[in-house]
Amino acid sequence: MRIEGLAVAAFAALMSALLSGLVVTSAQASDVMYEVQITNVTKGQSFTPIIVITDRHAVPFFELGEAASAELASLAEGGNTDPLAEQFVAEGSHVHQDDGGLLGPGETRVLLVSAQRKARRVSLAGMLLPTNDTFMALNSVRLPRFGQATYTVRAYDAGTEANDQDCANIPGPLCGGEADSAADDTDEGYVYVSNGFHDLGTGRLEPETYDWRNPVAVIKIERSR
């Protein structure tokens, strides 16, 4: 699910076509269902289509202070959830890949996600656009057995691309730049809590429009069946 240099309409059409071929675990009769409500509480950032993983065991996407996996880097730099999906399907987890397009500031989306009856953990993530390699995530938290659980979610930097705020290095309908970057000495090299946008001068995306203060999302999870 790459989002390089596409106009909004073209991006939506391509996303729909690509998603038809994705590997997503299907719900079984013995599965339970969860309603996952995601609200974008930033002023100027959008979320790319979101991946949700459920399992009986821990399903972390990252460790703070450690290098991001190649699968996470694909999501953080280009909004591509396929590598993470393939990884967790191979490990026996239930995987849901959202096909609703970008989730804009102030918008809410509700996903219906399946899980094994004894599933206990959930992770979800989506890239922030426009950024170089920033994503929002729940990182292997508990699924509610009863009622509703509410989480406020931070933005994280994957540390795999320099934060130059240059549209040439940022994908999506606003910038249309390159999604993936080769490793470089300017990369931080580890996952950390993102510190937002800064004033980097003329020709760079400005913090007045695109900066945020954590948290960036509110996630509500409720067992529906």
Show the helix and strand layout.
Blueprint: H1 8-19, E1 32-40, E2 46-47, E3 51-55, H2 70-78, H3 82-90, E4 94-97, E5 108-115, E6 121-129, E7 134-142, E8 148-153, E9 155-157, E10 192-193, H4 207-210, E11 217-223
Antiparallel strand pairs: 1-5, 1-11, 2-6, 3-4, 3-6, 6-7, 7-9, 8-11, 9-10
Helix pairs in contact: 2-3
Give the CATH superfamily. Answer: F-spondin domain
Radius of gyration: 17 Å
**Low confidence ranges:** 4-23
CATH architecture, by name, is Sandwich
Structural class: alpha+beta
Proportion in β-strands: 25-35%
Q: What's the shape?
A: globular
The number of E-state strands comes to: 11
Q: What is the number of domains? A: 1
Instruction: Please give the share of residues in helix.
Output: 10-25%
Give keywords.
single chain, 225 residues, alpha+beta, Immunoglobulin-like, 7-stranded antiparallel beta sheet, 4-stranded antiparallel beta sheet, 11 strands, 28% strand, globular
Structure description:
It is a single chain. With 225 residues, this protein is of the alpha+beta class. It has a single domain, classed as Immunoglobulin-like, CATH 2.60.40. It is built from four helices and eleven strands, in the order H-E-E-E-H-H-E-E-E-E-E-E-E-H-E. The longest helix is centred in the N-terminal third of the chain and has 12 residues, at 8-19. The model is unreliable at 4-23 (pLDDT under 50).
Describe the structure concisely:
The protein is of the alpha+beta class. The protein has helices at 8-19, 70-78, 82-90, 207-210, and strands at 32-40, 46-47, 51-55, 94-97, 108-115, 121-129, 134-142, 148-153, 155-157, 192-193, 217-223. The longest helix is centred in the first third of the chain and has 12 residues, at 8-19.
